[in-house]
Amino acid sequence: MAGFIGKERHAVDEKGRLMIPARFRRRFGHPASSGIEELSPGHIEALYIMKAPDRSLELYEPFVWNNMRKTISALSDFNPEERLLKTLMYESLETVELDRQGRVALSREFLEHAGITKDVLIIGADTKMIIWDPDRLFVLLQESAGRFATLAGRYF
């Protein structure tokens, strides 16, 4: 079954709340691949949000994050690189609750990380949603336009 696909432009309101697109909310609880266990179809009360290194934000459903959590938890606290990765991952992570209108409140820290002041572009990326400031994404796409064929050739 397919996950989140497509993109939508939305705005963050004056309280920092972001409406999750209805077509993405309808996908909640439906695993994108057979390797992810389904929790409660269609009913999600909270999402995991992470500050990504590329200055975007990533939203994950609990059942997706649970699989990532297992991988991270398996890292050793006694290996300095693995411990650092755990610290960096969890420092960049929060949970956000969905209100009855399908909105999540983004903290000032997360908004500043992504350079979001008003408008956002929400991209469905199968098992996650990626939130971008539209201007930052435009610059990234312009700078990376010539790399698509090379990257696609390397990985497909």
Residue share in helices? 25-40%
Low-confidence stretches: 33-41
- SSE pattern, N- to C-terminal: EEHEEHHEEHEEHH
Using the coordinates shown, work out and report the CATH topology. Chemotaxis protein chec
In round numbers, the mean pLDDT is 89
- What is the 3D shape? globular
Provide the CATH architecture. 3-Layer(aba) Sandwich
Determine the strand fraction and express it as a percent band: 25-35%
What structural class is derived from the secondary structure elements? Answer: alpha+beta
The CATH superfamily turns out to be Transcriptional regulator MraZ domain
Spatial strand order of the main sheet: 1-7-8-4-3-5
Our Rg estimate from Cα atoms comes to: 16 Å
List the helices and strands and how they pair.
Elements lengths: L3 E8 L5 E3 L2 H4 L20 E6 L5 E4 L1 H12 L6 H12 L1 E5 L5 E3 L2 H7 L4 E8 L1 E5 L1 H11 L3 H8 L1
Antiparallel strand pairs: 1-7, 2-6, 3-4, 3-5, 4-8, 7-8
Task: Write up what this structure looks like.
Strands 1-7-8-4-3-5 form a 6-stranded antiparallel beta sheet. Strands 2-6 form a two-stranded antiparallel sheet. The protein has one domain: 3-Layer(aba) Sandwich (Chemotaxis protein chec), CATH 3.40.1550.20. The protein is 35% helix and 27% strand. It is globular. The protein is built from 6 helices and 8 strands; from the N terminus they run E-E-H-E-E-H-H-E-E-H-E-E-H-H.
